[in-house]
Structure formats: structure tokens, C-alpha cells
Amino acid sequence: MSFQLNDEQKMIKQTIAKFLEKEIAPLVEEYERAEKPITKEIVQKLVPFGFLGGLLPEEAGGHGLDYTTYFTMIEELSRIWPSLRATVGLSNSVLTHIYEYGTEEQKAKYLGPLLRGEKFGFFALTEPNVGSDASSVETRATFQGDKWIINGTKIFITNGIDGEIGIVIAQTDKSLGNKGIASIIVDRSQSSYQSKQIEKMGTVCCPFAELIFENCEVPRENILGNVGEGLKQGLKFLNSARAMVAYIATGIAQACVDSSIKYVKERNQFGKPIGSFQLIQEKISEMLTLTNAMRLLGQQASSLLDEGKQAKVECSMAKYFATDRVLKVAEEALQIHGGYGYTKEFPVERYYRDIRYFTIAEGTNEMQKLIIGREVLGISAFV
Ligand SMILES: Cc1cc2nc3c(=O)[nH]c(=O)nc-3n(C[C@H](O)[C@H](O)[C@H](O)COP(=O)(O)OP(=O)(O)OC[C@H]3O[C@@H](n4cnc5c(N)ncnc54)[C@H](O)[C@@H]3O)c2cc1C
Question: What three-state secondary structure class fits 130?
Fold first, then answer.
């Protein structure tokens, strides 16, 4: 296992950083202040680099990247614009599921528009009464005539407003428990449901929504993989998603460090730059150390995934450590900026808001600790 990026990965990281700083960074403040949703045109600027489908093989329209390279690109995108990362992330997740489990017809119909950023994807699992315990999903899909009829409510669905190709997790047979859950592709151009935006604290240019399905008709051929395997399919990607979250947190932590280093050299108090005070230097060194530790745990997890290992414990460790410690980094960045840190004149208040939700999403941090405990002790505290 290497703790360094190889030459090609370093080159990709530099190229991406240069592009994002030139083409994307100038858009961020205007969009974030006005809470304008990310547009397709913005997402399409990222397409040539492989942000959509980077992990898919080239013959499927992807870039054939390994996890470490792709997540390093995601770290850079998170450093520049977390809302854009979230928009792209959900589309990427949907296309990955369709590539992995879809029929040739489903791939031919849906992969192209998602890979080209012409349509956004959403993934709808969470419900008003169903969060950490995903197996208790209440949304029902019943087969009638030659269609699936979906009834139920999904909540906190990223890209739920602008997304046009969704994967909805629904129960088809309650008596089968975990094995009675299916994934269904819901295509907005052929199925009707309501979406209502929910206001939130951060990543405000990537809205999330409540989706209400009332006798929503979906063609029979939209079932993804086998009926009964909906939950199993989602679980397959959870480990890699958790490793990726560690890179997202690292990107935002790095943005906090960069802003703070610049500020402490420019801001003068008591006749000298505040960076000359020992207490400020202590904060900078702790922020930098934590950021490096997050990156290393993320790299450990992604290198194991690249070796074909499941790395359950390492992915959960990386996710929970990084999303927990980035809050300390973001808080110190705000403190270093003094009163200005609490204003919209500097980006640090946004970094704090944008990363806050990741102790909750992709499996809460409490659940990560229970997963690590289960793997180490052989005793599950939650099933
Ligand atoms: C910004 C954002 C974007 C999201 N995007 C999506 C999306 O695109 N699609 C989607 O389906 N969902 C999405 N979610 C939902 C997210 O996945 C859920 O919020 C998450 O799974 C937690 O579920 P919950 O909110 O119902 O909390 P709950 O599961 O009700 O948990 C509440 C608290 O209880 C704790 N808890 C629960 N069970 C246990 C236990 N056994 N032991 C100890 N503590 C426990 C949790 O850790 C948490 O602290 C998003 C959420 C956010 C905030």
C-alpha cells in the first residue's frame, strides 16, 4: 500500500485543480449567495475529465479510473465547490447502479444522458420513518397489469427537484423483509410524482426534496436487476461511497487550511500578522495535521478497494474520522477569521455549513462505529 499518489495521479490532480480554479471557482460565490441551483451547463464542463462515470470501463463510456484517482478528483472538486460535487455525485451513483445491474436496454436508454450530464440522477431510499434502518422501507411497489405502481414518500432526496432519472427503493413483499425490496428506475418523462424542495443548511446550490408517489405508474421493464435485491444492490456500493466521503471531507478541510493560511499572513493585530502569534500557529498546525490524517485514512481505504478488497472497517473508519474531524478544522478556520469568519465575505462559514451533513449521510457516524464494532467483535449491536 502506498501513501503517495503516483506520478499519473499527481498529474491528474494538478490538471483538475488548474481547470476548476480557472473555470468553476469564479462561479461559486454568485451561485451560493443567490442559492441558484447548479445547471446542466456547469456539470457538462466536468464531463471531459470523467467526473461522471470515471470508474466505469472505457467501453461503457467511462474513464476506467481506479478508486484512488477518481476520489482524488472528487477531493479537488469538493475543495472548490461542494454543491457541485453533490449534484455530480448523485448522478454518478445512479449511472453506476444502472451500469452494474441494468439490462442492455436500460443501459442504452439511460447511461448516455447521465454520462453526458444532459440529465441528473437521484437515488431515493430515505423516508420520513426510515433512515438508518433501511430494511424497514415502507414505500410500496405493486405489480398490476404490466406496470409497477409505486405509493409512498421519500425524503431528503438530493437532485430530487431537477433529477430526471431516479432509482427508487421500494418494498414489493413485506413478508420477505430485506429480500422483499426492489430498485426501480423512475423516469420523469414517463412517470408522474410530486417533488417539493426542502430548505437546508448547506450545499444550497444542490437542492434536496421530498418526493411523493401516489399511484405512480412505472413500466415493468424499469425494474433494476432482480426483484428482492434492491437493498443488496445499494449495500454493494456503500463501502466505496464511504471512502469517497473521506476524500470529500479532506477537500473541504484543505480549503479551510488554505483560506486560513492566507488570512493569518494578511490580517494584522498588535502591529503584526496574526500568524506570528503562537496560539494561531497551534491552530494552523492542528488543522493541517488533521487534514493529512483524513487524507491518509481515505487513501488507505481506497488503496484496499483498488486491490479488490472489501475494506469495510477501513472505509467506515475513514468516513467517520474525516467527517468528524473536518468539523474541528472548519470551526478553527472560522475562529481564525474572527468576526469576518461569521460573515458571507469569506468562504469559511460556507465550508462549515457544506460539510456538516456528512456525519449524517452515507450512514451516520454512530452507525459507522457500530459497523466497526460488529466487524471487530463479531457481535452486531443493530440487527
Ligand atoms: C444533505 C443530505 C442529503 C441526503 N441525500 C439523500 C439522498 O440523495 N437519498 C437518500 O435516500 N437519502 C438522503 N439523505 C438522507 C440520509 O441518508 C439520512 O438522513 C441518514 O440515513 C440518516 O437517517 P435519518 O435522518 O432518518 O436519521 P435516523 O436514522 O432517524 O437517526 C437519528 C439519530 O439516531 C442515531 N441512531 C439510529 N439508529 C441507531 C442505532 N442503532 N444505534 C445508535 N444510534 C442510532 C443516528 O446515528 C442519528 O444520530 C440525505 C441527508 C442529508 C442530510
Answer: strand
CA of 125, closest atom in ligand 1 = 11
Nearest to 89 by CA among 71, 109, 106: 71
Establish if 383 belongs to a structural domain: no
246 and 225 belong to one structural domain: no
Ligand 1, atom 4, residue with closest C-alpha? 156
CATH number at residue 218: 2.40.110.10
Q: Which three cell numbers stand for residue 294?
A: 483524513
CA dist 348 and 342 (Å) reads: 8
Number of domains in the chain: 3
For residue 35, the enclosing domain spans 7-119
User: Residue 235 — pLDDT band, cuts 50, 70, 90?
Assistant: confident
Same domain, yes or no: 314 and 237: yes
Question: Which atom of ligand 1 lies closest to the CA of 362?
Answer: 17
Same domain assignment for residues 266 and 353 = yes
CA-nearest of 87, 90, 71 to 13 is 71
Catalytic-role residue among 199, 362, 366, 375:
362
pTM score: 0.97
* The domain boundary residue, chosen from 229, 245, 279: 229
- Span 359-369, pLDDT tens digits: 999 999 999 99
**Ligand 1 pocket list (CB less than 6 A):** 90, 123-126, 131-132, 156-158, 208, 357, 360-361, 364, 366-367, 370, 382
Q: Considering only CA atoms, which of 370, 357, 356, 351 is closest in space to residue 312?
A: 370
Q: Is 362 a catalytic residue?
A: yes
What letter would DSSP give residue 127?
B
| pLDDT tens per residue across span 23-78 | 999 999 999 999 999 999 999 999 999 999 999 999 999 999 999 999 999 999 99
Query: Does residue 331 fall inside a structural domain?
Result: yes
**Stretch 306-322: mean pLDDT:** 97
Q: Side chain identity at 316, as an amino acid letter?
A: S
